[in-house]
Amino acid sequence: MAALRCFLRSGKGAVSVLLRRELHATAPASAQVMVRDALNQAMDEELERDERVFLLGEEVAQYDGAYKVSRGLWKKYGDKRIIDTPITEVMCDSVLAPPPQAGLRPICEFMTFNFSMQAIDQVINSAAKTYYMSAGLQPVPIVFRGPNGASAGVAAQHSQCFAAWYGHCPGLKVISPWSAEDCKGLLKSAIRDDNPVVFLENELMYGVPFEMSEEAQSKDFTIPIGKAKIERPGSHITLVSHSRFVGHCLDAAAVLAKEGIECEVINLRTIRPLDVECIEGSVMKTNHLVTVEGGWPQFGVGAEICARIMEGPAFNYLDAPAVRVTGVDIPMPYAKILEDNSIPQIKDIIFSVKKTLNV
Amino acid sequence: PVATQQLNPCELKGSASCNTARQENSGARVVVSRSYADFTPQATFDIKKCEVHRLEEGPAGKAELTREQGLQYYRTMQTIRRMELRADQLYKQKIIRGFCHLYDGQEACAVGIESAINPSDHLITAYRSHGYTYTRGVSVKEILAELTGRKGGVAKGKGGSMHMYAPHFYGGNGIVGAQIPLGAGIALACQYQGNNQVCVTLYGDGAANQGQLFESFNMAALWKLPCIFICENNRYGMGTSVERASASTDYYMRGDFIPGIRVDGMDVLCVREATKFAADHCRAGKGPIVMELQTYRYHGHSMSDPGVSYRTREEIQEVRSKSDPISLLKERMLSSNMASAEEFKVIDVEIRKEVEEAAQFATSDPEPPLEELCNHIFYNEAPIEVRGTNPWSKLKSVS
Predict the structure, then answer these.
(1) Per-domain residue ranges of chain A
(2) For A31-217, which CATH class?
(3) CB atoms within 10 A of CB A133
(4) What is the pLDDT of residue B308?
(5) Does B29 reside within a domain?
(6) pTM
């Protein structure tokens, strides 16, 4: 069991993606692409397509990006389009809010979303609310992107998940991709969107390769914001997740399949607007729901999903209470054994599925 | 009677060769039988004059150093150096994980500051904090064990590199610049309590452009808070040089209405004298003061940064050979006959042993027990229940 888990995890999703592909029609000429390269491609293509797009952030230009996501872009596009800033998150935000109103389309990189708290006033009060407050006069086409959530051993101040915080606010679109395909298609859509978009990446996913179809590699490949994807169909229980934990759900599903439990795994892709219809449709089929996220439980993504299910038609189809698998309700500790036990593990997902199914 | 010697510390290139010549001439082999009475007990050294901003005069251009002080500063700086280098090794062995920002090259700052303030004064810094954790009283053992995430670490393994604390030492802070308003707040507490203490608030050249620094400047000046703002300018904010980040690189003047001093951060005596001057200024009720320490880090920004994509190896080597803080002090003491080379060697051996024992402890001490996962959420509260990863997981949190 542990070996299988290790294999699946070390296969870095590629194997599970391949397995999935065999269930559906396989696209020709696919390639292995790492998440960071998919993000890089998305930005490269959008920078080329539209002169008004530019990237601004700490170490994005000459350093090639703190996590090398913007590697090569400064060499290609120069100082005007790829801008290194001082360490001033608030200014990055406030410098970036007016340009959309002046016709530009900035991409603001936060080294991690933990630092975005320095500037969160600007994200909410200057970006999210402006189109509403101006009754349609001033749109703000801006993308805020960067790594979100826990990494490995970076302790309490650098490990928080902001999906719930940003997902709470009207006026923002909030995306939390998982695979390379998600990252590329959704980042392109985000950049082309005329509204403020918060794009929550994950540092531990940057180096993970996924198979990308030929279609996904093309310059016009976009994924619509606000639509979830069923990564794995199943009939016994619905697992809903976003970002890195989609991979954990797929790993858990593979283990459970050996025991005859078929999980349907939904990759939310977008936190706001939430694709409730997709979840409802799935729950109405499987009658059981477990949500999985890395963030804290209170007022989180899982809490919102459970509330929406209760308020909609799917409630009557539930055979058991919906359950949330979340991070532990504590600041992130540093020591490895404590950190490992502070975020959902595959065994936690398996346990919750079995308790929900009463097996 | 105290014999004093005038020495020009600027001729550092020369003093090393002078030193060797002196040893050969005086028959160094005989040193073993020299008694300590042969050494100069105290000397006065010329130190670099500090540039000042909004001050009639700055710290004096001379510093007195006793033999005991010199040996102690040497020992402390060398301990920090060896501790940081050991941490580098442990990180490469993946025994330390996550973030690790090393302080080697900047030792004169931590040691100079500590030698000028009292243990009852306060200090707060950012994430390049291992040196200050040591000077503020935490043992090498507890620091390394914290880096390796063990229960014997100063924060019981829960904090890691950037979150180590001690009495009157407020960390270790991960978010750039966030520690500055905290430092001003500590100074406010000192004023409120009328205890004549000061707060040393450290930040880097990268953080010097943060808005919260200027908010802190305003409040500290307005309310005359006993806050010493110290910018450790090591020329690079991660990969961005000061010229690319700051419209003005005169960090000691950035406080505008707050007086400032620019200090040679590679000279422990210069740092000490400037900090004494600054502390006196604050304790006299004159309000805050800004110090800029011009210093250098040998390592990259953190262990994941090789540190050579934005600066040359030649530059790093030049600083190492001409301005290393530990060598500077050692050469001063040797050339004014305040100590012998053998004494320094003995100290080095003792430090190596201490650091090695600490590293042994740090690698063999067990990780914190899972039962303590949820402790320390709240202070002074009855035990509470904490939700685990799923609704059936109910964990316990004790204050």
Answers:
(1) 31-217, 229-357
(2) alpha beta
(3) 12
(4) 96
(5) no
(6) 0.89
